[in-house]
Structures are given as C-alpha cells and as structure tokens.
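Translate structure to sequence.
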C-alpha cells in the first residue's frame, strides 16, 4: 500500500474524482529528510545525481540517490534552500536515505534529520483549499518554524507536499486505491514498489530531469555517464492496461511468447483509462500487446508510453 493506512475511506470513485477534479488529502506516500548546516549543499553535490549547487534557492527538482555501482537506491524530490536541502523520499525509504548519507558524511559540517511523514494535497483546487487553511502557497517551496510546504509536479495533477501545521482535517481524504490509480496514470514510480535492486537511472525514464551531466563527480556517476554516452539499457519503465475487466495481482509476469519480459507493479483500477492498469519495467523492444500471467490466471495486456491519460 502506498498511500496512508487505508485502501479507501469508503468511496473509491469519489476519492478518485476529488483527486482529479477537486482536492483531497493523501498520506503515507512520502517522507522528508532534511540536511542542514554549512556543508549541506557541497556534501550533497558529491552524492546526488542532481546539480545541487546549481539549483536555485526555493526550487523543487528531481534527483536520485545511487549505490556506488550506479543502481537506484532512492527516487527523490530535492528542495534546495539556503544552507539546507530537504529530500522527499518514497515512504519506507527515508530511513535508508538518511543511513546512506550518514555513511558518507566524513568531516562534513551538516546534520541529517530523521525522516518525517508527509501530508499531501492533490487536485486542481488544492491551492485554493490550502490558502483558505491559512497556508502560504509557494511557487516552489518554503518553510517557517512549523511547516514545510512544497509544490511538487506530477503530470496531470496539481500536488502539494507538507509537514507541520497546515490543518487539513476538513478536507476529503483519499486512500491508496484512488491515489495509486492517479499516480499510475501519471507514470510516477515508487522506489520499492516499481523498481528493483538492479534498476539503473536510464530505466526509470527520469534521467533527463534528475541527472546533471555537467557537474562534477557523484556517487555512481561512472555507470550513468557510460550508459548516457556509449551504452543502452535493456529495460524501461512503461504503463500497462488490461484488455479485460480482470485485476491481475501485483507481480504478475508479462510474457511474450514463452519469454518473461517484465512484471506488473502498482496494479490499480483506472477510471480515466477505463481499465485495470499498472506500471512495469519491461524489456526494450517488447511488442505493445503481451500476456499477463499468474498462478491460476492470465489476461491480454497492452504496453503504453508514460504518462497514460487515454487508452490510445
């Protein structure tokens, strides 16, 4: 489950429509880790894929934390401040991000916080609802003593992430069923849900927005640069829709002929696509139409580019 503790608050369709057409609160999907101190920016410049030093103060950008071998450890949103950088990590990965950074913090004057839970508001009326609640809505991100609030882009959806003193108690809540559907349609993966421990940056499709090819060295850079300039990847993140009204289980194998070419992840019911849907790291060159199979079942499915807003 990738959104709070509940699959639904009693009306999945209403929750989905609020996320798409009004405003609704989503919890349990992300965590914030703050890195503060005189060396915070220069420290992260040598760790993350993004150009931390070149990012404008108040900006919100994508970044990735890699292993030394260039494998994705965590997908991140990076909030650049003055002597502070806040990293928004997928739920369940905040502690590992803090631990990974801590292992490389040698003679560095910076503090790494424990992860904090994030409350989110999605939908076209989110800004109006937040302003009515007394929140100062930024173009990028801002903080005061109690609150961090960031405008975090997602294709087709207005989205804000926050910690601290914004009162959202009177706003409709959306559970994981509705939130996952919107996220899948937008093509936004979660680290532990949609990726595996072999995933390379270029397989995520985020390399164009999350990686700086002009800054100096960072953790895992050699592999990223080698693929960018001389190599290729064998898999890529794409969307899946099911050709019948059957919801495959998470992890259903995608099979072309007698060969497994991927696995379905983040499986959901999409109202916009009018079909069960999901994400997959699928082998490059796979035909658009394959079979999803699992113990006791199987259905034809179609592979799509991301994001998926129609079934075309």
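Result:
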């Amino acid at each position: 489950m990738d959104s709070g503790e509940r699959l639904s608050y009693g009306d999945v369709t209403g929750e989905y429509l609020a996320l798409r057409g009004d405003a609704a609160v989503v919890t349990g999907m992300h965590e914030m880790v703050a890195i503060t101190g005189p060396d915070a920016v220069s420290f992260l410049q040598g760790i993350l894929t993004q150009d931390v030093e070149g990012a404008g103060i108040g900006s919100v950008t994508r970044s990735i934390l890699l292993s030394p071998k260039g494998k994705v450890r965590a997908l991140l949103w990076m909030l650049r401040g003055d002597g502070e950088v806040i990293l928004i990590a997928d739920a369940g990965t905040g502690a590992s991000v803090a631990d990974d950074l801590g292992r490389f913090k040698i003679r560095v004057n910076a503090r790494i916080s424990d992860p904090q839970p994030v409350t989110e508001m999605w939908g076209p009326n989110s800004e109006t609802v937040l302003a009515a609640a007394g929140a100062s809505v930024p173009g990028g991100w801002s903080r005061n003593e109690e609150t961090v609030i960031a405008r975090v882009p997602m294709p087709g959806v207005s989205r804000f992430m926050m910690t601290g003193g914004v009162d959202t108690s009177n706003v409709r809540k959306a559970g994981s069923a509705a939130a996952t559907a919107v996220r899948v349609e937008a093509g936004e993966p979660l680290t532990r849900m949609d990726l595996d421990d072999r995933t390379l940056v270029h397989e995520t499709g985020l390399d164009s927005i999350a990686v700086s090819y002009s800054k100096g060295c960072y953790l895992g850079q050699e592999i990223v640069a080698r693929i960018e300039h001389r190599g290729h990847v064998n898999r890529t993140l794409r969307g899946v829709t099911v050709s019948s009204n059957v919801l495959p289980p998470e992890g259903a194998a995608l099979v072309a002929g007698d060969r497994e070419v991927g696995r379905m992840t983040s499986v959901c019911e999409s109202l916009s696509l009018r079909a069960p849907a999901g994400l997959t790291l699928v082998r490059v060159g796979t035909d658009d139409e394959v079979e999803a199979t699992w113990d006791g079942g199987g259905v034809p499915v179609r592979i799509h580019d991301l994001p998926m807003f129609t079934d075309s």
